[in-house]
Amino acid sequence: MNNEIKVVRADILGYCMGVRRAVELAKEALESYPHKQVFTLGPLIHNKSALEQLANQGLLQLSVTDIDSINSENPPVVIVRAHGVPPAVKKALSEKNCIIIDATCPRVLLSQKRAADFAEKHYEVLIAGDKNHGEVTGIAGFAEEKGSKCQVVENVADAENISAVDKAILISQTTISRQEYEDIAAVLKTKIADLQVFNTICPATSERQKALEELCSKVEGILVIGGKNSANTQRLFMNAEKWCKGLVAHIETADEIPSSFFHLKTVGLTAGASTPDEIIDEVEDTLIKKTIE
Ligand code: SF4
Fold this sequence. Notes:
This protein has helices spanning 17-32, 48-56, 87-95, 106-120, 134-145, 156-161, 178-191, 203-216, 231-243, 277-289, and strands spanning 6-9, 38-41, 59-62, 77-80, 99-102, 124-128, 150-153, 167-172, 194-197, 221-225, 247-251, 266-271. By secondary structure, it is of the alpha/beta class. The protein folds into three domains: 6-14 and 204-289, 3-Layer(aba) Sandwich (Cobalt-precorrin-4 Transmethylase, domain 1); 17-104, Rossmann fold; 107-197, 4-hydroxy-3-methylbut-2-enyl diphosphate reductase, catalytic domain (Cobalt-precorrin-4 Transmethylase, domain 1), CATH 3.40.1010.20. The strands form three sheets. The protein has a four-stranded parallel β-sheet with strand order 1-12-10-11, with helices on both faces. The longest helix is centred in the first third of the chain and has 16 residues, at 17-32. Iron/sulfur cluster binds at residues 16-19, 82, 105, 107-108, 174-175, 202, 204, 273.
């Protein structure tokens, strides 16, 4: 028996603008510098198979602690990923004569610039987000370089413990939840008279969620494609389980499609912001081509 599956993609899925740009810059670097080692500072994206593919093409990873051991006589190409890095890291790379390709997302660049500008005007810079996230440490570095004290506020409890200052700005990590940010801002407003709150949340995550919600009522099952360690893919999966009345699965590659999906008439696809187009295409092709015996 042949079961013809209709595959419907969410209106918005897969790579966000910043990740797409970073991947394209990395591919260009590999082509432009065939005789040089090309590194990214940390993983370029949160997708294992995409990283493996890039590694096969010669793209390796470097960590900040490796910079000291770079041979400045034969410096590599280093790609700064979409999260960005503190200015001190870029300076260390320049001192080693590295060819730096800056793939910092334009949205993150804006936050870095804002942090530096207000730090120069003696504002304290507060960042709502995860202390250990590369984007947050990068932005903090821009404020600190200009002499501002910078504090990271991870949650409402942290906001309550912030010592009162005269004037401050609040910036968020681009992927924080809107509700969490509003709650943190509300607490800080009671403590800081001159607090300027900037809306720096990136719409990429909510756009993918909204498109998924619309898709859920149109299909019998949803495949969420993306890295198991990708936070935004995990959130898509969680919501798909909530919104879809049929089957839901989180897969990284086409090989992981559960056999039950091949019995459905309509399957919806969504994918996290770091899922490559080729993997989405492969999942769609597999669903369409595979026949049920
Ligand atoms: S999620 Fe938004 S801010 Fe982050 S890299 Fe993508 S486009 Fe840029």
